[in-house]
Amino acid sequence: MRGNDIFYSGEEIKFRAEVKEYAAAEILPLSNDFDEGTIKIREIVKKLGEKGYMGVSMPKEYGGQGKSVVFEMILCEELGAINYGVAAVHIASSLFLGYPLVRFGTEEQKKKYLVPITTGQRVSGMGMTEPTAGSDVAGTKTEAVLEGDFYILKGEKRFIGCGSEADFLLTFAITDPSVHAHKGMTAFIAETSDPGFELVKVFDLLGWVGVGVSHLRYNNLKVPRDNILGKLNHGFIVAGYELDAERVAAAAAGIGMARAAFEIAVKYSSERKQFDVPIRTFEGVNFKVADMAIGLEAMSLLNLKVARMIEEGVTASKESAISKLFAAEGTFSVVNDALQIMGGIGLTKEYPIEKFFRDARALSIAGGTNEILKYLIQREVYKEFGL
């Protein structure tokens, strides 16, 4: 039994073993092809959907497994241990629109959009970040103007995961420019089949290869009035709900990646010899191993706490920000130490450490930069003190 298994139920432990076996047998052999672009996002989504993994935490009546956020966390961790890009595709296509649909969607919206998302038949994503609005979501410039039974969306979205292949996008746009964005922004379900949708470019990123991170443009894209998600001008409420779950999932995928790097480094340090002894005998190496173990333990338990909070319906805005920030910093530290232990061979593609390093660096920016998360955390702390 793993030491942390005491914090998981028997069903959760069994699920982890199932996902780990699946990821090693089905995702690992495809990993290089996915990174090189010969296997596309849609194929990954379909594959995960056929196994039921695109809807792990979605209701059974809409094609999901009806499991808790903890199961989602376990899935993301084990996918991240194999290929963070695959985990990121799952998160973007399943959770970004899926979670808000479960909470705010009408019955018609759930049947039309949630079912194909959870079964892997369609790819979805979220249009939030813009060229001039990233950490400052209130700086959103995309506008939606009502004309008859349709809202006409005009604006741009940037750094959108799965944007290159998404069929549906949870899109945030200003519907009342006369008030602050907190009170004048609305969430829409936009379909990319509309002629007003334009894929400007797919970014060639340092990490997260294969995730289709894109620059999109809405050229008077038509969205039916019925495709408002939640209430008119309540977009910030929808966004806040989505972000908590996203951050737990992103943290989990990072933790999985860090764990994989740790395991590789530990084994390598026992096999690699210098001065006729394994390098693990040197404090410069084995103290790094100790630091890595400490970081992994702390990251894992903190993220589990937040997942349990969300599972129980407890507000976790501060805690999800803390966990995502801690995981982003911790994952990079672990992967960086693993690379240092590996030395020159770690820089080559003979081991996945160099890929982990690139993916880990991106984690401190995507889903909320480390700096904006610190801002959110301190804000919540002062609120708790009534200050």
Describe the 3D structure.
The chain is an alpha+beta fold and 387 residues long. Helices cover 53% and strands 15% of the residues. The strands form three sheets. Strands 1-4-5-8 form a four-stranded mixed beta sheet. Strand 9 and strand 10 (277-278) form a beta hairpin. Helix 9 runs antiparallel to helix 10. The radius of gyration is 21 Å and the shape is globular. The N and C termini lie far apart (45 Å). The mean pLDDT is 95.
Count the E strands: 10
- The stretches of 5 or more residues where confidence is low (pLDDT under 50) are none
Helix content: 40-55%
Largest sheet: 4 strands, mixed
Q: On the 0-100 scale, what is the average pLDDT? A: 95
Helical segment tally? 12
Order of helices and strands: HHHHHHEEEEHEEEEHEEHHHH
What integer value in Å does the Rg equal?
21 Å
Beta-strand content bin: 5-15%
| Backbone structural class | alpha+beta
Principal-axes geometry comes out as globular
The neighbouring-strand order within the major sheet is: 1-4-5-8
Distance between the termini: 45 Å
